[in-house]
Amino acid sequence: MASKDNTFFLEIVSPEGIVFEGEVEKITLETNIGEITVLPHHVSLFTKLAEGEVTILADGNKTHIAVAGGFLEVKENKATILSDYAIRAESIEIAKAEERKRKAENVLQEKAENTDFILAQKDLRKSILELKVAQNVKRRHTNS
């Protein structure tokens, strides 16, 4: 375990609950203005997140989490990510994500009612995000 001086506390929360919490060495993620890395004792920060991947380094191991936007707050050696949707890469079921993507695309092509259209757009974005993160993680593990 890295010493407390070399870590900070990270919590990632979605409406479904806590997706990650613990001491970490660094996180890298996409904001609306570009990629940032947060290290221990980072200056206070509040920023909007872009849809994408959060890469966490803790105890020398990387964890990857897909987030559908949200907010990052860094304050007093603690980082909190609040997102409408977040899932660990290892929990992504590629076949199910591909099926949800296909169904959402069909609904969008049929020009469904307003509510169905909005829900299909949201589901399409989530499934594309999951597939992108899962493929990125798989590609990195294949190349290492």
Detailed description of the structure:
With 144 residues, the protein is α+β, with helices and mostly antiparallel strands. The protein has two domains: 4-89, F0F1 ATP synthase delta/epsilon subunit, N-terminal (ATP Synthase, domain 1); 93-143. It contains two helices and eight strands, in the order E-E-E-E-E-E-E-E-H-H. Strands 1, 2, 3, 4, 5, 6, 7 and 8 form an eight-stranded mixed β-sheet that branches. It is globular and about 55 Å long. The two termini are 23 Å apart. The model has no long low-confidence stretch (mean pLDDT 91).
Describe the biggest sheet? 8 strands, mixed
**Number of domains in the coordinates?**
2
- pLDDT under 50 segments (min length 5)? none
**Individual helix count:** 2
Number of DSSP strand runs? 8
CATH-assigned fold name of the largest domain: ATP Synthase, domain 1
Instruction: Provide the β-strand percentage band.
Output: 35-45%
Our measurement of the CA-to-CA distance between the termini, rounded to an integer number of angstroms, reads 23 Å
| Helix-strand string | EEEEEEEEHH
Mean pLDDT: 91
In terms of structural class, how would the helical and strand content be classed? Answer: alpha+beta
Tell me the Rg in angstroms.
Answer: 17 Å
Can you identify the CATH superfamily of the largest domain? F0F1 ATP synthase delta/epsilon subunit, N-terminal
